[in-house]
Amino acid sequence: MIMNTPQASQSSPLINRAPGPLKATGRKRVLIIGGGFAGLNAALQLKNTDAIVTIIDRKNHHTFQPLLYQVATATLTPADIAQPIRNIVGQADNIAVLMSEVNGIDSRTNCVHLSDGSLLDYDYLILATGATHSYFGHDEWQPIAPGLKTVEDALKIRRQVFTAFEAAEREVLLRGHHKPLNFIVIGGGPTGVELAGALADSCRLYCKNFRGIDASKSRVLLIEAIPKILAAYPDKLSASALEQLKQIGVEVMLNTQVTAIEPGLVRTNIGDLDATVVLWAAGVKASPLGKMLGGEIDKRGCVMVDANLNPPGKPNVFVCGDLAHFEQDGKQVPGVAQTAIQMGTYAGQQILADMRGQARKPFCYRDKGDMATIGRMKAVANIKWPFKAVITGGPAWFSWLLIHVMFLVGFRNRFVVTLQWLWTFLGHKQGAQLITDKN
Question: Is there a contact between 264 and 272 (Cβ–Cβ < 8 Å)?
Fold first, then answer.
């Protein structure tokens, strides 16, 4: 990379550890690690200000994670829900984007170590690297039961699902019958519920393309260890989601603990299940970068932060999104997109307040509610702001659609996604069923 050359190190104010020409002007350097909801919203607050901002991410694009499951089930394509970070921050003269990986943070010397050996100084650090899958000590399950956090995860799941359809069709043509297609989703939170509902829709819709597949032999099973799905939702919405899942053919197994996952088999406390495809939506853990700050972390690896989203004793470091353990009214705020957006916006605003000599205000999370889509014209929504409402079914689905389109980045994304949804959901049309290479 350019940043490794001596010439780049001498000329670039973003890379050189020694005070560079922009540093000499007195402008504050802000490093944002992570280009997700929190990192991007922090950067947008600092756009076209006196701060010198660098966004560091392993990818060159921002992914709208709430819609990843629709890429996994072929309703949308990756380009519909991802946008280059450089396009989002626009042509702001004070923001640079660096595609790289951080492997060390020294908060004593205000320095970040990159994987290629380069160093970056900062006056302010915003750490927003999110979370990844947690298999509760059984990482050997990951190759068999992939989770859903990235575009690559979604494409892997899509490949497995449609490869299963192709294998069943081939079996019918060669042997006259096929084994049951069992799609098992582990975890009854929002991701698991949405993924199971989308798979049920896919089985009904896409099986029509395969002349030999018996749709009655396609099963979608949702496994949850506790007595209810969508545990954080009101009981009324949890019960409604359960009923709507059953209406579209999802078999929900409550109070069921997974004890082992093997190729073609899921073992549980109540018996073994044959599995064609197994998907994981049961747990997350924080990014390992949080541990590098040297402060207190919780059992999931989230960094304990104070009222200003700072780790104790580090007022120039902000931890945002899924990586932050912030408590309000006696409980931790949820690790969802709206939390990350609010935290990122807050961090950018407090840096601006410091630069202007203004006092910081404590962070206050505004819970705007929760919603989950279950299938075509099926959803649940617990709206808390700007008005309160508990809705289910079609009205909840349209509310979900409107809000997700509104928060998608870029006019093209909003326009294309809206058309695709109308084409697929209302017209019962088929999406992108491409099986791409593993690499």
Answer: no
